[in-house]
Amino acid sequence: MHLKLGSIPVLIVSSSEVASEILKTHDLAFCSRPSSPVLMKFSYGGSDIAFSKYGENWRQMRRLGMLEIFSMKRVKSFRRGREEEVHILTQNIRRRSSQGEAVNLSEMFLCMSNNITCREVFGKRFSNDGECNRSEHHDLVLEVIELMGGFSLGDFFPYLQNLLNVITGFKVKLERNFKGMDELFEREIEGHCLSLSDDPGHEEDFLDVLLKLQKDSNLGFSLKRDHIKGILMDIFLGGTDTSASILEWAMSELMRHPKVMKKAQDEVRGVLGKKGKVEESDLQQLQYLKLLINETLRLHCIVPLLVPRESMEECKVNGYIIPKKTRVYVNAWAIGRDPKLWEDPEVFLPERFDGSAINYKGQHFEFIPFSSGRRMCPGIQLGIAAVEIALANMLYHFDWEAPLGTCHQGIDMTETFGLVLHKKSPLLLIAKPTKVEV
Ligand code: HEM
C-alpha cells in the first residue's frame, strides 16, 4: 500500500513476497532510516546503531556491536545475571502469592527484563535488593520507549514540525526524558571511568567494554562519547520491553490453552525433576518451549511494523516505482497471520513449528519478527536467552490460575499501539507453587 502521510511518501508492506523484495533483493536501497526530532535526539544525532542513516558511521557501529556487544560469547557471559534475576522474580511471585492474591505478571516481567538490561549495561540492577519492583529508572526508560513508539504529528509535516511539537506538548516531554537518560548515562560513565578494572575476575558489562574500546588505538576510528551513549540507548530501547512483552503474550496464550500449558509444564518438570530450578544449561533439552516461543512470536509479532526504513534511491518493487526517501513499514504482524501462508493462522498451535524448517533468523519471509537483511535485529540471542530462562522457570515452579471471575478463555488479548506490541490490560494471575524443590 502506497500512501502520503503529510508530506512524506509511505509504503506499507503486508505480503511476504514484497517483504522479501524490500529486505533481501533491494536490501541496500532500503536500509536507511528516516530521521525525526525524536530519533535524532535519542540517537545522539544518529551516532548509534538503530536509528543512524546508512553510511560509514552505521557500518562502524554495527560491526563493533556485532563483535563486542551482541556476540554469543558476550551473551553467555551474562548468564549469571539472567539466572539471578529470574530467581528473584520467582521468589517475589512466591512471596506475593502466598496470600492467594493475583500477581501482576506484566509489571513483574517488565521489571525483571529492565533489571537484566541494566546489569548487562552497567553491571547493576535498578530495583531494591531482592525485589522485582519499579524504580524511577524503570519509569524513565519506559516513558522513553513510549515516546519512541508514539505517533508524533510533526514527523509527517516537516515544515510545521517545530510548531506542532510545541502545541502537542511533545517537545517538553522529549526534552525532559532525554535529559533524564543523558544524566543517567553521564553518571554511569563517570563511575565506570573511576573503577575500570583489569582484574581478570571482573565481570565486564557493556559500558566497561565500550570504554575500553574508546582507548584502543587499533580500533581504526574514534569512538566518541556520543557513540557510546547512542549504543547504550539502543540497548535500553531494544532490550527492555521486547522480552517482557514476549513473556506476557506467551503466558496469556498458555492460560487460554490449558493443554499447551500442561504439555509445556510436563516437558520442563519431566526434564528437571526435583532439581529445584531451571538453569540455562538445561534449556537445550526443552524443545517444546522453543516451539511455543516461536508460535508466540508469530501470532504476537511484538515489533509489528518492524523499525521504519527509508529508501536511499528510486527503486522498482513488485512492478511499482518507489521514490527515493519513501518511508517503509513492513507489517510483520499481518504476515504472521496471513491465511495464504499459515493454516488456521488465528489458532495458537506451537506444534505447527515441530519439524518445520521455518525459523526467525531472517531467511523465511513468512516469519520475520526480528526482520531480515543488513539491519536485522542484532540482539536476538540476548532477547531470546532472557525469554527462555524466565518462561521455563514460570512453567517449572508454578501452576497458574485466572483470578476469580475470569475464565481462562476470558484473558483479555487486546493489543496497544506502539513500537512494541503490549497487552492493553495487565496480565493478573494467581500462582500456585509446585513441589519441585529437593
Ligand atoms: C527479544 C525481542 C526483540 C525483537 C522482537 C526485536 C526486533 C527488532 C526489529 C524488528 C528490528 C528492526 C530491524 C530492521 O530494521 O530491519 C530490531 C532492530 C534492532 N534491535 Fe532488536 N529486537 C529484540 C531484542 C533486542 C535486544 C535485546 C537488543 C539489544 C540488547 C536489540 C537491539 C536492536 C538494535 C541495536 C537494532 C537496530 C539494528 C540496525 O539498525 O542496524 N533488540 N529489533
UniProtKB/TrEMBL annotation:
UniProt entry keywords in alphabetical sequence: Heme, Iron, Metal-binding, Monooxygenase, Oxidoreductase
Binding site for heme: C377
Keyword Transcription regulation annotated: no
Cofactor(s) it depends on: heme
KW Metal-binding (keyword) present: yes
Highest taxon listed in the record's lineage: Eukaryota
GO molecular function terms attached to this record: heme binding; iron ion binding; monooxygenase activity; oxidoreductase activity, acting on paired donors, with incorporation or reduction of molecular oxygen
Alphabetical list of Pfam families matching this protein: p450
Family named by the database record: Belongs to the cytochrome P450 family.
Xref: PANTHER family: CYTOCHROME P450 71A9-LIKE ISOFORM X1, CYTOCHROME P450 FAMILY 71 PROTEIN
Protein name, UniProt field: Cytochrome P450
Species in which this protein is naturally found: Dioscorea zingiberensis
